[in-house]
Write a structure and sequence with these properties.
It is built from twelve helices and 17 strands. Helices cover 27% and strands 19% of the residues. It starts with 10 loop residues before the first helix and ends with a helix. The strands form three sheets. An eight-stranded parallel beta barrel has the order 1-11-12-13-14-15-16-17. Strands 4, 6, 7, 8 and 10 form a five-stranded antiparallel beta sheet that branches. Helix 7 packs parallel to helix 8 and helix 11 runs parallel beside helix 12 (515-522). It has two domains: 11-88 and 244-522, Glycosidases (TIM Barrel, Alpha-Beta Barrel), CATH 3.20.20; 99-228. The chain has helices spanning 11-26, 65-72, 213-216, 238-242, 252-260, 284-299, 322-343, 371-390, 411-416, 441-454, 474-487, 515-522; strands at 75-77, 99-106, 118-119, 125-131, 143-151, 161-172, 178-180, 186-191, 200-203, 220-228, 265-270, 303-308, 350-355, 400-403, 428-433, 457-462, 491-493. With 524 residues, the protein is an alpha/beta fold.
């Protein structure tokens, strides 16, 4: 069936096409008996959302989705490379490695008095509290000042300038007298050198009734701090992060070997949050590195699907929920715009993919996902399409790929999907991640078949694991490819780089451990 809108297609020709499709599916043998096409219930046209401007000349208008899929063939991913992230680093959902500590000094200096170290939260905020139960200085020593200092032992943080805003700073004595530490309140430019920043001081001479160390003991300090633009400058750390999950850095020789083996499509997943400021500014050195890898693939005339990977998912910061959409919409839009601007002049072998496996705040992967969260996923997809198109250049009519909620293919998720409206005609592809096994393959493909007939689907991720008994993936992959070929859609093997798990390509030796499996995927 044509994948572009064809109002002139007659009913008689349509029936002949449907008969041919049905016959080709049956010809795949007993393995695909459950994959059928219901000619009574399937519409004759794909769902095509468009508000195309007739005055614009669209560069790739002559290539239909059908032709695109034929040219792409099946592909493989370069997983666990540019998508590698450090969940414990800045921008993740865990502690960021920055700490704060306060000190108390006497005049003249007597001895060291310091609080414990307290960690900033993932968003760079800290409500610092020091209950001063005891001090090392004698009670009779004269008060001089309080001071606070930021600490990080991370190599990426060294010599990195950032902004620290303090919105509240108070000292309350044991008797209840409360003093504002006005010298600390405000915006401060700090730099970490040898693990610490300079001190921020508050003289105590203005605190009436607080003259000696004895007056300080039993008191409490409270300070609200917020770090801004505190992300790591990874310009010298990108290659280190690429290897963090055990793979070598991507090289041109690696991409060439994939192309030489017969693959015409490569999916390059990318994760951005380790390379972004708090406001969403992407490190230009990292964008340059992504471009370098993409350009290698384009040089060898490959199609490149470039996704936004672990910024979503269970541990990601972008979620399919109303509150997350409200809080992060501006930042996400800014991130997508920077990506789109960077790549807008690449030719139409580049397919920009939106949000990989986005889940809600509860990280649900079941049949009980709230309808409101599924609806928010559609809004994120629309934001992605609108933002990319607005950057113009070749993004005006570039093929874009959006995913369902979590890229799932369950009936509930598929039924909730809404194709984004678009200013380009039939240039939106829909991604599903289908890690089916021999036991559930028939049932799962049957569920998604009608969806495939309705939208321009790509299986963005699929794979089989190597079992403990050895690499026996041929049987499952063979049956899987029968389904894929019958549906006439591309499928992208998820290669994580580990040849003991999912990988089909040894990135260290540029070799292919299971040639038969590779031939099967490429469909030789």
């Amino acid at each position: 069936m044509s994948r572009i809108k064809t109002d002139f297609l007659s009913k008689g020709i349509y029936m002949l096409v449907m008969i041919a499709v049905s016959c080709s599916i049956l010809a795949c043998g007993s393995n695909v008996n459950n994959l059928t096409v219901d000619t009574e219930n399937i519409e004759t046209d794909k769902v095509v959302a468009t508000t195309q401007n007739p005055s614009i000349v669209y560069a790739s208008e002559d290539m239909s989705v059908e032709e695109l899929y034929k040219d792409m063939g099946n592909g493989m991913s370069l997983g666990n490379d540019l998508d590698v992230c450090d969940w414990d680093a800045i921008g993740s959902n865990k502690a960021i490695g920055y700490q704060a500590a306060a000190i108390y000094t006497t005049n003249p200096y007597s001895t060291w008095n310091a609080s414990s170290y307290q960690y900033f939260s993932y968003d760079g905020s800290l409500h610092f509290v020091w209950n001063i139960e005891s001090l090392n200085s004698e009670n009779s020593t004269i008060c001089d000042s309080f001071a606070i200092q930021i600490v990080s032992h991370e190599s990426n943080a060294q010599n990195k300038a950032f902004t620290c805003s303090i919105t509240n700073a108070t000292f309350t004595t044991a008797t209840g007298a409360k003093y504002t530490m006005g010298s600390l309140i405000g915006t401060h430019q700090l730099t970490i050198k040898n693990d610490v920043t300079q001190y921020l001081y508050q003289p105590m001479s203005t605190f009436d009734g607080v003259k000696t160390t004895g007056d300080v003991i039993g008191g409490k300090i409270e300070i609200d701090l917020k770090l801004e633009d505190f992300y790591y400058d990874v310009s010298s750390e990108i290659s280190k992060l690429e290897t963090y999950w055990g793979n070598p850095v991507a090289t041109e020789d690696m991409i060439k070997a994939i192309s030489d083996r017969g693959f015409k499509t490569i999916r390059i997943p990318v994760t951005y949050f380790n390379h972004m400021s708090d406001e969403g500014t992407i490190d230009t050195a990292f964008l340059d590195r992504v471009e370098e890898v993409v350009d290698w693939a384009l040089k060898y005339d490959m199609y490149v699907i470039m996704s936004i990977q672990h910024d979503t998912g269970n541990d990601g910061w972008i979620k399919a929920s109303e509150s997350n959409y409200k809080n992060n919409k501006t930042k996400v839009e800014y991130m997508v715009r920077q990506i789109a601007e960077k790549f807008k002049d690449k030719d139409n072998h580049l397919i920009l993919e939106g949000f990989n496996e986005m889940v809600n705040d509860k990280c649900q992967w079941d049949d009980y996902i709230p309808d409101k969260d599924l609806s928010v996923m559609n809004r994120w997809n629309q934001l992605f399409v609108d933002t990319v198109r607005a950057t113009e250049g070749n993004n005006t009519d570039r093929y874009l790929l959006v995913n369902t909620y979590a890229a799932m293919s369950t009936k509930k998720v598929l039924d909730a999907f809404v194709l984004p409206s678009d200013t380009a005609n039939n240039k939106i592809l829909v991604g599903l991640h289908c890690y089916f096994n021999n036991d559930n393959m028939d049932q799962n493909f049957a569920v998604m078949t009608e969806f495939v007939e309705k939208y321009n689907v790509i299986i963005g991720e699929w794979a089989f694991w190597i079992s403990k008994e050895g690499d026996n993936r041929i049987e499952g992959a063979s049956r899987y490819m029968e389904y894929v070929n019958a549906l006439g859609i591309p499928a992208i093997w998820w290669d994580n780089g580990n040849t003991n798990e999912m990988a089909i390509f040894d990135r260290k030796t540029l070799s292919w451990p299971n040639e038969e499996l590779v031939d099967l995927i490429i469909d030789i």
